[in-house]
Write a structure and sequence with these properties.
By secondary structure, the chain is an all-alpha fold. The chain is built from 14 helices and no strands.
């Protein structure tokens, strides 16, 4: 399997997690922090095969830094889930890919790297794509909280973009001192430490208990969600190892389009499972935004 297949596999797996998250947020989740707590706890199960394969290596102080970026992960995940709760899955999948703009801005201001004209062009395309996929024509006020012409999820996604860029820049630094697998282990443990603080809130403890009392079906699907997340992130790691970062990033940016395909298939097989605008004008808008995302990610990668 070459880099292209791994890139497509990674995007396809991560698109599944967005679908599952949206389904649960709309039906079962009252408290975002409780849902995030359960996901992070389940995530630790998938560390066991990684530990068996790669072991646990401590590098001072970089392993402590890796624990810290686990906290950053929790913040960006919380922002992502809040955005997903008020917006369509396919639109959020497109908005995700604006974060490279903040990555290269961080490289410019913090690392002193020179920006090329292609970086500016790619950044402009990504911002345009985010606005395009967030836009709702006046004749389609939308089915999201607050309505309006521009998605209310953008305020949450702005937090997601900044913290995802911080996570990416920190990871770039830490990978000079540890392997990809060790970074996954330490950052996951850091996320676990962060979400344990959520249990101080009574409503979080109550809802978490409800998840585990709801029976094996609910927990099994959440395990499946984290499995797809693990496979998606793992596939992209192998894709980066085998191919160009720019090309892999561009192919993986097809995730919004793959998400849209999933949504249309589910809509025909299970009507009402996910509520999304599926008229021709909206679909054309989303496809156009996806094309801009792929082009923008390629230019800034």
């Amino acid at each position: 399997m070459d880099w292209f297949a791994f890139s497509i596999a990674g995007a396809a797996c991560l698109a599944v997690t967005g679908i599952i998250d949206k389904f649960y947020l709309g039906r079962y989740v009252r408290n975002i922090l409780a849902y995030l707590f359960v996901l992070v706890v389940i995530q630790q199960v998938f560390l066991l095969p990684v530990l068996a394969y790669a072991g646990l290596e401590f590098v001072y102080p970089q392993s402590l830094y890796a624990l810290s970026i686990g906290v950053v992960q929790v913040i960006l995940w919380a922002a992502y889930l809040r955005a997903l709760k008020v917006e369509e899955t396919s639109r959020i999948a497109g908005q995700v890919y604006v974060f490279p703009v903040f990555v290269f801005l961080g490289e410019f201001f913090l690392l002193g790297e020179t920006l090329q004209p292609s970086d500016y062009a790619g950044g402009a395309l990504l911002v345009l794509a985010a606005l395009l996929i967030s836009y709702r024509p006046a004749s389609h006020p939308g089915r999201i909280a607050g309505g309006g012409r521009i998605s209310p999820a953008l305020k949450y996604m702005a937090v997601f973009w900044v913290f995802t860029a911080a996570y990416s820049l920190a990871s770039k630094y830490l990978l000079d001192y540890m392997t990809e697998w060790h970074l996954i282990v330490w950052s996951s443990l850091g996320s676990l430490v962060a979400v344990l603080a959520f249990l101080a809130r009574g409503e979080v403890r109550s809802e978490v208990g409800g998840y585990f009392r709801s029976g094996p079906r609910l927990i099994s699907i959440l395990f499946l969600n984290e499995l797809f997340d693990f496979l998606g992130r793992g596939s992209l790691i192998f894709a980066y190892a085998l191919g160009s970062v720019a090309l892999v990033s561009s192919v993986s940016a097809l995730q919004p389009f793959i998400t849209l395909i999933y949504v249309l298939i589910l809509g025909s097989l299970l009507p009402g499972m996910l509520v999304e605008d599926s008229d021709g004008r909206t679909i054309a808008l989303k496809i156009g935004a996806t094309i801009l995302i792929v082009a923008g990610v390629y230019l800034v990668s």
